Amino acid sequence: MALKRKRTLYDKLWDVHEVEQLEDGTSIIYIDRHLVHEVTSPQAFEGLRLTGRRVRRPDCTLATVDHNTPTATRKSFRSLSAYIKDPEALAQCQALEQNVADFGLPYFGVTDRRQGHQYTSGIVHVIGPEQGFTLPGTTIVCGDSHTTTHGAFGSLAFGIGTSAVEHVLATQCLALTKSRNMRVTIDGALPAGVAPKDVVLHIIGVLGAGGATGCVVEFAGPAVRAMSMEARMSVCNMSVEAGARAGLVAPDEVTVAYLRGRPLAPRGGEWDRAVKYWQTLRSDEGARFDVEVTIHAEDIGPTVTWGTSPQDVVSILGSTPDPAQCADIDKRRYIERALAYMGLAPNMPMQDIPIDKVFIGSCTNGRIEDLREAARVVRAAGPDARVRDGVHAMVVPGSGLVKARAEAEGLDAVFTRAGFDWREPGCSLCCGLADTLGPGERCASTSNRNFEGRQGPRSRTHLLSPAMAAAAALRGKLTDVREFLSRAVDVEPGPALELVPGVDIADETIPDVPSMRPHPIVQHEKSGRGAMVTGAAVVAFERVKGIAAPLHLPNVDTDVIFPAQFCKTLKRTGLADYLFFSVRNDIRSGTKTDFVLNRPPYTDAKILVCDMPNFGCGSSREHAAWAMKDFGIVCVIAPSFGEIFQNNCMQNGMLPIVLPDGDCQVLAQDAEAGLELEVDLEAQEIRRGTGGPAISFIIDPLRRHRLLNGLDDITLTLEREDAIAKYEEHRRESWPWLDKLGRGDFGSWPGSTKRQTTNIEW
Ligand SMILES: CC(C)[C@@](O)(CC(=O)O)C(=O)O
Ligand code: SF4
Q1: pTM given for the model
Q2: Judgement on whether residues 349 and 433 belong to the same structural domain of the protein
């Protein structure tokens, strides 16, 4: 008798969402839940309008404004246009309001008054779970990389680019290739004073920023089981920072208790049926994982980042790394660059690092438990504890509900009494849109990314937990929170903070970050640039011949490729000048730097060769791909890619090629010498200007076919209408609670003001 295949949780989620298997191993996957926000959706709605398409499932879609909404008081809020001062931010929020009205979508606006609270808009990854829109066993997407958050419920949740947003709006499906299974087991119990944030920072430190690329990671083990839902969300949230497609925690009684009574959670008989189904959602005993990692909870302590990637973690009791101790030259260069950017010296004790700002908030740590933890530290420091002079410490709740709840518990009073700035909900300082750091400013931040320029041009970020952030605010420097929690602490301003000699963090001395180009350049005649392809239309890719620009850095993130301040556009074109903006421009002098794309012949580059891994990691912003294409780059070659970026390229008729390190190095050397490359997709090979042997590459056949023929994914998926309709019928019978926004009745959409009286247990 054939044994039943043992499946992981991910296998199960995948299997039940397969609408159709295509010949080449790709599958059409049904999407149960689609979250939409103002920054990554305007171009998608524009696409729908241009093609005359409608939104297939408004009842499975939920929109909110979060990235661009100011966090200044809303006490006298009159209108969006009076409240949002930045015209581009306003235009994006208004565009979303227009789009939800035109397409009839459920929407949480700044002025919503449901739940008996004044404002329920908030960070998309906070409101989804708190409303019960996020449910176990579902597929959830959003034009946002931190959609991984929702995996905490045992849902398959992942970020997508704007083209994919359009695809989901139009078809409620995506064409996907299955990822690999990884399990991270956390043994034992967490020591006192160690937060979920420390856990996930530690994990990213172990795996590396690209360590989970191509994988869906299930978090398991006693330490995970002991976590609350909010803790699990913080962990899954940052799984994308290790490159994971998604993070997962199998649902259990903690999950069920959290969801009971949420406005959009199933009710009555459907609730019982749903709970029964959710109980089946776990990896089978003995199921095979492609990668297994075990971490011991006792090894984790309060953790902070020192550098410019979330993998750059160190214990708060540790010091910055010393590049001189590094045998590997690439690693040494990386550390030097990151320390220079951060304005830090080698071997500097982390607890000596003074900070200018503190940010408590974001989709990682802007929930009620996070605020409680931060407030606990402030309380423990005594009634006279104050935010250190000269430090601006912001507390930004993740949603209107979190804010209301915190106020009901008196947390706002704890914060404001101690001199913290209590704000309105939104993404705020996490991404440098609604709130920003000044150049050179250093922030102790509970957010998820410490990339160069993440919190504003030339900003410096240290990631840490909410409790650690509160401690840093009181001390004015990075601090081991356990000191606050174990005994009464003197937080009177102590002697002036001393910096390690040679470290100067004043604005004028922001170091120039070394160029990403390591070797001397060979000057060449300008070569002709091919026709630039722009716009949303799908363009066929057959071959490209031209100059290739070399890059020699690992983990080049999409914040560096395309800084957030330019994500406020409503368009996909005209973005070439913003490509690598902060490394191409010296913000002090306004002049161009010597960055490779500023120098002939690379100003005409059509190909980019990065010889280090994880190119395009981080944010889902498709602007990074659009800007490259606008610049004229249609092919990127690297040892590995951030998955969302890789997909975004292909959606825009660009070709990302994965090659072994050695091949990338050979091609990067050709590029250094200014030699042309010819990339031939039909033949799957790269011909070299040196006349040296061509290098062949592999690409998945469906992608190749679509690129060669300039086929539009949405049209192709829509051709599967019968299969999709059949799946929807099956879904209605099997999981009826997923239709009609889980039947949680907020009244008719959009713009409903009907009140809901559901009681949520916090
Ligand atoms: C839209 C953008 C600012 C984003 O939210 C997108 C993302 O993470 O995918 C980010 O945090 O970089
Ligand atoms: S990562 Fe930051 S900007 Fe992106 S959704 Fe979360 S809070 Fe908002």
Answers
A1: 0.92
A2: yes
Question: Largest Cα–Cα distance in the chain?
Answer: 76
CB 126 within 8 A of CB 365: no
Q: SS3 string of 377-443?
A: HHHHCCCCCCCCCCCEEEECCCEHHHHHHHHHCCHHHHHHHCCCEECCCCCHHHCCCCCCCCCCCEE
| 288 and 332 belong to one structural domain | no
What letter does residue 492 receive in the DSSP assignment? S
Q: Give residue-wise pLDDT tens across range 338-350.
A: 999 999 999 999 9
Banded pLDDT at 113 (limits 50, 70, 90): low
For Cα atoms 97, 725, 709, give the angle at the middle one, nearest 5 degrees: 80
| 97 in the same domain as 153 | yes
Q: How far is the CA of 494 from the centre of ligand 2 (A)?
A: 35
Q: What does pLDDT average to over the chain?
A: 90
Report whether residue 255 contacts ligand 1, using a CB cutoff of 6 Å. no
Same domain, 101 and 245: yes
Q: Is the same domain home to 284 and 319? A: no
- Domain of residue 603: give its range: 543-709
Query: Quick one: 284 and 324 in the same domain?
Result: no
Residues with CB under 6 A from ligand 2: 66-67, 123, 125, 144, 146, 362-363, 427, 430-431, 447-448
Residue 651: closest CA among 699, 703, 723, 600: 703
State how far the alpha carbon of 181 is from the alpha carbons of 30, 163, 203, in Å. 20, 26, 16
Inside any domain, residue 391? yes
Do residues 219 and 96 share a domain? yes
